[in-house]
Amino acid sequence: MIEVIDEERCTGCNICVHACPTNVFDAGAKIPVIARQDDCQTCFMCEAWCPEDALYVSPRADDLEHPDIAALKFNHVIGSYRAAIGWSKGDAPTI
Amino acid sequence: MAIRRPVEQISSAGAQEFRADVLVLGGGPAGTWAAINAAGRGASVLLVDKGFCGTSGATAPSGTGVWYVDPDSAKREAAMASREAMGGFLQDRRWMARVLDHAYDTVQQLADWGYPFQTDEYGLQRYGSVMGPQYMRLMRKRAKQAGAKILDHSPALELIVDDRGAVRGASGIRQQSGERWIVRSGAVVMATGGCAFLSKALGCNVLTGDGYLMGAEVGAELSGMEFSNAYAMSPAFSSVTKTRFYDWATFTDASGELIPGAQSKGGRSNIARWLTNNGAVFARIDKADAPTQAAMRLAQPNFFLPFDRAGIDPFAQRFPVTLRLEGTVRGTGGLRIVDDTCATTVPGLYAAGDAATRELICGGFTGGGSHNAAWAMSSGFWAGGAAADHALSVGEPRHAAPVKHAGGVALREGAERPVDSGDLIKSVQAEVFPYDINYFRNGEKLSGALNRLDSLWSATSRAGRSDALRVTRDREAVSMLATARWMYRSALERKESRGMARRLDYPGQDSGPKYNVRVGGLHEVWSRRDANQPAPILEAAE
Lengths: 95, 542
Hints:
Distance between the termini of chain A: 23 Å
Mean pLDDT of chain A: 93
Radius of gyration of chain A: 12 Å
Number of domains of chain A: 1
Low-confidence stretches of chain A: none
Strand content of chain A: 5-15%
Radius of gyration of chain B: 22 Å
Oligomer: heterodimer
CATH class of chain A: Alpha Beta
Shape of chain B: globular
């Protein structure tokens, strides 16, 4: 399930609010919020569409992992799916 | 080329109201190809997606093969022949040939548009597979460039019919604002996908059979709904249902002992049986050599995502697996198609992709991916083109003409409280998820499940109108319930084992004349056997 929106990297572009096929996010005051986590289907699409590598979807479909954000960034786990499908940081899809 | 007409917004008071020649419901591969071809024929096109066109559905988060075969008569012949036994000989050769032709041309079109096909070790482009994220991102862009207007997060809830029963639009809700939308159109393409019953199979939770319900509410027939019990393998903790690589796996029990007969291909029932009767099943993908492992990583990055993140080396370590229901998404049942244009049994309504039956090219079995991808490209393109021609020939939707909103349960006033979708979804899942009912089918278990589902329908059909916050999920629950009843009614009608529709009480393939099972109806579900024969070549008169 989607577990992390990294406040440091997120620019508040709200692409994830649009791109999530199950409408999990709401636009927030500064950055989006994970409003309906139970509706997450663990499809990784929000992470793929985030041009800032600010989102992390845990591989666990049914329960929470509570990952350490600093470690995810240090180990380049955040952004790894985009890299694997050949989408680079800053490559913003058009909505 | 004709000058494309714009989508008109008629009103935004109370509801956002639009007028378009062609309305496409669903923005996966079938819906986007439909939109592109309809716009190319000069029609104004509105595409609505329950989620987001570009990420919604089974294709976007996956890598998928395409049934792509060189136009060499021997190779084409072999491609068609190789599938006939698996599909129970229900396919139509002429349809297989036209889909092979169209998919071949479509892949070339994608290459011309700049889709980055991978190159093999000889420097030749590999046209046989596409990466879902890239493919669907491109399709969204091309649909918009073709002139289609897209409404995301805008689930359709019901169809609109004119005084002669022809489909002339739909209505639904803008999920992120709560506003209603109403579209008056000359024709509708149903491309809403199949039904996987919220099993969390990869990308499938938007696929809840909505199009089957909306179609049945205007009297459309379905076909092949007994071919609806596809189960795909995933790590037990994960949503990533990519079954193919488990061909290289060894399956063991909790103590590490080999499970007899357990294989992904040809032995999946032994895995389902073990999960039912004995408990956990573990896999290790230990039959892939180093070059194969490298090729796997390149072809399907998302297969490795859960492993990498969970710290598991799937080639060296054992991990627990499960089988998630993919229902009709990788089954072959759906709205019945009556001619080469992908028309349904209702005027003005066309069906494409997994919302339509895929029996014409797959019979009673598809491993997903390849054939379904070719089918979506082809049926979407044809349905979109025919919907445009139909809309342009019937002329402007008459704004003042009498129309009826055809939706039923959860949309109209009822005698009782609104649907409790949470409870209803659990009750339906309890009938369709268990391997013991849906994988290992027999008449007694199917009848028992169908009786319980019929009782649920009786109770649910008296439910009152759902409010804007809940109506989408409530209609999904009703769609799943209706779909489950059509599945089991059809499974009971087919008293033999053919394709994926296997019956423990009828283990053999009937040697008598072949037939297709048609099904439909809401309050009274009916089924019928039609002789299996090549589809007529002439387009149905309208």
